[in-house]
Amino acid sequence: MPTHRRVTRRPVLKGALAASVALPLSSTALPSAPASADERRDRPLDVMSFNLRFASTAEPHSWAARRPVMRRLLRRERPHVIGTQEGLYQQLRDIEADLGPSYDWIGTGRAGGSQDEFMTVFYDTRRLVPLAYDHFWLSGTPDVIASNTWGGASIRMVTWVRFRDLRQGGRECYVLNTHLDNASQYARERAGALIAERVGALARSLPVVVTGDFNVAAHGNPVYDTLLDAGLVDTWDAAAERGKAYGTFHGYRPPVPDGSRIDWILVTPGVTVHRASINTFAVDGRFPSDHLPVQAALTV
């Protein structure tokens, strides 16, 4: 897998990273607030995967109506890593502002630059430092921006970041974030095989965390089998503690207990999963998205 390769002609992050790795579109890093005593403890890495639902103006679930609920949820949970799907550029800037100056993000539009949806990785700069990052497309030509060769309904991609954890003894890990096709099972199966191959290459050196909306149910599809057969572990099953199970796509309706879990956090063996949960946060019946975020507390 390539590690330090420019993938678009876009601005890079300023500072030490600029010499080694280029990033098409991220926020501008801001000074971090001093870490609290709690942040200094060797506590688990809190990871969230969240399909944001793109910023539509259609009521009653417009982004303007949902954004205050999203803000309250994210400020309450404060994950160290958030892999988001479907976010549009201005929507991501809104979330950046709502999270505050200790967060930054890495991503590019799946059609290149600021166009189309992003597979963004938000991260808490008080906890994590990105060391390398890149993108690949879920197609037969994964290094070609915006490529879509498997008959999927939309362009699909992966954004990955190599992080150093400032709290857990300086350990490093990879985070991959993706969103598989909603229409084509063939495209999903080919995408699962490609992700498994790329994860296998990365996992030879460091632990890997995969976040995403896979558009198929866990335990019920060959895509899931492919990824687990490649050695990945479902954090929901591996967790020492877990919350109540719900279907993760609810379409703004009441969440369904024990429904299909299509949003997953997967890890390589050796990652300790302390807790896993599906977050049903809403305010007066208003949900932040048509998906529920899934969360896991990890030691990598």
Question: Would you give an account of this structure?
Answer:
The protein has a single domain, classed as Deoxyribonuclease I, Chain A, CATH 3.60.10.10. α2 links the parallel β1 and β2. The protein has helices spanning 37-40, 63-77, 89-99, 185-202, 222-229, 235-238; strands spanning 45-51, 81-85, 103-106, 121-124, 128-137, 157-165, 172-179, 208-213, 233-234, 241-242, 263-267, 272-278, 294-299. α2 (63-77) crosses α3 and α4 packs parallel to α5 (222-229). The two termini are 21 Å apart. The strands form 2 sheets. It has a 7-stranded mixed sheet with strand order 3-4-2-1-13-12-10. A 6-stranded mixed sheet has the order 5-6-7-8-11-9. It has 300 residues and is an alpha+beta fold. The radius of gyration is 18 Å and the shape is globular. It has 6 helices and 13 strands.
Spatial extent as radius of gyration: 18 Å
Strand content: 25-35%
Are there runs of 5+ residues with pLDDT below 50, and where? Answer: 1-35
Globally, the shape reads globular
What fold name goes in the CATH topology slot?
A: Deoxyribonuclease I, Chain A
Second-tier CATH architecture: 4-Layer Sandwich
CATH C-level class: Alpha Beta
Helix/strand structural class = alpha+beta
The largest sheet, given as strand count, sense and whether it forms a barrel, is: 7 strands, mixed
Helix content: 10-25%
What's the overall average pLDDT, rounded?
89
Order of helices and strands: HEHEHEEEEEHEHEHEEEE
Number of separate structural domains: 1
Order of strands, widest sheet: 3-4-2-1-13-12-10
How many helices does DSSP assign? Answer: 6
Total strand segments: 13
